[in-house]
Specification:
The chain has 301 residues and is of the alpha/beta class. The protein folds into two domains: 22-193, 3-Layer(aba) Sandwich (Rossmann fold); 211-299, 2-Layer Sandwich (Pantoate--beta-alanine Ligase, Chain: A,domain 2), CATH 3.30.1300. Helices cover 40% and strands 19% of the residues. It is built from twelve helices and nine strands. Strands 1-4-3-2-5-6 form a six-stranded parallel sheet, sandwiched between helices. Helix 11 (220-232) packs antiparallel against helix 12 (238-250). The longest helix has 16 residues, at 144-159. The termini are far apart. It binds pantoate. Pantoate (PAF) is lined by residues 48-50, 78, 81, 148, 151-152, 170, 173. Pantoate is lined by residues 48-50, 78, 81, 148, 151-152, 170, 173.
């Protein structure tokens, strides 16, 4: 084999050996590795996750690899952000598969702490995000964003990343995290990344694996409705369109809309007219049996 052929062959292998990855459970160990890397002037990119990884997460890891020298991924199902105990228990946990997937990405360090490691004592901090948290997810999942802020601020304190990568499926979460970083003066750049969808349009989510085959077959109706709504925005008023979306989603017997709101992309406050200034985003939460799915779409108006 000539050298060129060997190289091509090596790159067709799953490149386990190209990316050396360490799985770390303790804060102390992670901090000491990262201190050393930071001391060499390397830039740290961070992707916080709750595991059950899918191509959406992997796109964040890839982007972190493009924009940083060292990529850290955390896998931690954070109990404080679940306002529903059954939802926490049901949340998928697939650590072995997650680690195998990450081995094929630029991830160098996987942080998989136990609950006691993150919360040696109960976190009693109360964040106030004002109107940002009084709508949509904040309204329907009380305490959820307080828990997200608790864990993400704690993880930022441990990892001290230069950049952190978040998916835009959790549109409101990104706004809350940006506000938290500003509020606490954390020197990290928040990098929002596009929603990744299945071929049938369903937004990728760890919760999708909890859907039974019939629910899974019907769930893409959510994204299809959002895409159709974008084409109708010129013909219907904001209020008419909101009603149209809810009725259309609920026509499907497997789906039950919790909310559909059209909001300003910065203030997250509901808009009442297309004439209002600023970009507008349609955000939806839908129950598919016991599984709650969220999605959103940008209205270019
Ligand atoms: O988006 C998530 O998976 C979680 O909310 C996060 C940001 C990892 C915090 O637990």
């Amino acid at each position: 084999m000539n050298d060129g052929f060997v190289l091509i062959y090596l790159f067709t292998l799953q490149p386990d050996f190209l990316y050396k990855m360490q799985v770390i459970k303790e804060i102390k160990e992670l901090r000491s590795i990262l201190d050393e890397k930071r001391g060499k002037g390397l830039r740290i990119g961070f992707v916080p996750t709750m595991g059950a990884l899918h191509a959406g997460h992997l796109s964040l890891v890839t982007e972190a690899g493009n924009q940083s020298d060292v990529v850290v991924v955390s896998i931690f199902v954070n109990p404080t952000q679940f306002n529903d105990k059954a939802d926490l228990e049901r949340y998928p946990r697939t650590l072995e598969a997650d680690v195998l997937l990450l081995k094929q990405t630029p991830c160098e360090l996987v942080f998989v702490p136990e609950v006691d490691e993150i919360y040696p004592e109960p976190d009693t901090r109360n964040f106030n995000f004002g109107s940002l948290e009084q709508v949509m997810e904040g309204q329907f999942r009380p305490g959820h964003f307080n828990g997200v802020a608790q864990v993400v601020s704690r993880l930022f304190d441990i990892v001290k990343p230069d950049k952190a990568f978040f998916g835009m499926k959790d549109f409101q979460q990104v706004a809350i995290i940006k506000a938290m970083v500003k509020m606490l003066g954390i020197p990290v750049e928040i990098v929002p990344c596009p929603i990744v969808r299945e071929n049938d349009g369903l937004a990728m989510s760890s919760r999708n694996m909890l859907l039974d085959p019939q629910q899974r077959a019907n769930a893409p109706h959510i994204a299809a409705t959002l895409f159709e709504a974008v084409t109708k925005a010129g013909q219907l008023s904001v209020e008419e369109l909101k009603k149209w979306v809810v009725d259309r989603v609920n026509e499907n017997p497997y789906l039950n809309t919790e909310y559909f709101e059209i909001v300003d992309d910065e203030t997250l406050q509901p808009v009442s007219s297309w004439e209002q200034r600023g970009a507008k985003v349609g955000c939806i939460a839908v129950h598919c049996g016991k599984i709650r799915l969220i999605d959103n779409v940008v209205f270019n108006r």
